[in-house]
# Entry
Amino acid sequence: MKSLILSIIVSLLVLSQSLAAAQQSDVSGVFALDGVHVLTMESEDILRNQTVLIENGIISAVGEQGSVSIPEGAQRLEGPFYVMPGLAEMHAHIPPERQGEEYMLNTLALYLSQGITTIRGMLGEPAHLNLRDRAANGEIVSPRIFTSGPSFSGTSVPSLERARTMVFEQAEAGYDLLKFHPGLSVEKFEVITQAANEAGIEFSGHISHDVGLIRSLDAGKGTIDHLDRYMEFLAGNPEDREDPSIIYFGYDLAHDADQSRIPEAVRLTREAGVWNVPTNTLMHNVFNPDLSTEMMSDWPGMEYMPEQLVNNWARFVNELRQGEDYDEEKARRFLELRDILTLALHEGGAGLLLGADAPQIFNPPGYSAHRELELIVGAGISPFEALKTGTVNVGHYLNEEELTGKVATGFRADLILLRSNPLESIPFHDEIEGVVISGTYHSSESLKELLEPMRRN
# Structure
């Protein structure tokens, strides 16, 4: 009995000390990663045995272990982990409010669990503005959020007058950018882009059939997503072609595309200063004959996707591949051309941003960004340059070169802790030890526990 009482007393003492330390840490706002190996993203060099000191969500010091003074009472995590900047998913989707707050919050946590510390929501609504504010205030477990408003498309924009009004409404509401979907006439496109420039708000996303690549580049678009309309440009923009389904992105022109026109496409893109978010994983999931729906259903992260949603994805892909428009040889050429174009854009100085279009067809949030990185490397880009698409390049795109995308003094403390060298372990998945968002540390295990209600098996 005495031993039991003694054990309880010791446990209470340990608990009270832990709580006191945690309270001290909360007051000081200081967190130290000690004895870690750092990929700063300044270069490919790994800095060994470093201390990264974080104060109030900002990195205040990076230096050799023992050279950085860690304040008493600071929260500390020590170990031979690899630290790199958090990744950005630049073509993300947040579920609509009608699917329930729990599902929205779970999806945001799923992104964060895979080291995605920034997302750019590409089909927004008023509820997402509220989530953006709550994430910024640390009220929810979430990446930092940038979001478009409801999209501009052939159906959502009924008139030229309404087109202009929608731009100013979304700018006034506080959306970060405008999202374009297909179906816009040239006249509507010109009214929208002129109004957007007046309002000082970015426009990005798809390119409408009538608008085309050149007009989009000339208009000063922020990003082109999915490499939209590049295949049409390579094929000479055939006038007699009827625009196919939204998901095709020029697949039907794979055998008509003139590869020798790629340097011109790259030059025009670079000179326009337009970024590309390729989302190659989405195209592989739809068209790659080597990826069966059964195989994709078993990918990491799919266990968090609703069963009905997964079944719908499988049905869509199987029906498309069994349809008369699908040809395996054409599909392989289409994917090959996209790889060639992705590499050429990178080598030609036309910037790439990481994006997988999650959660879309077999692309679970977070997990699919790692697969996109894997495909970028497969296209011939080095692992370091691939990681820049989700870190350093994002800082440039956001005009936050001195705040986002590196492990350096003065930068946001949005970090990934890995158990292995990130340059050698793409896709990361099981290598993630934890994630830091705005200076707050979440272990991989704690995030998994948070996501347990989403797991199907």
The first helix runs from residue 2 to 28.
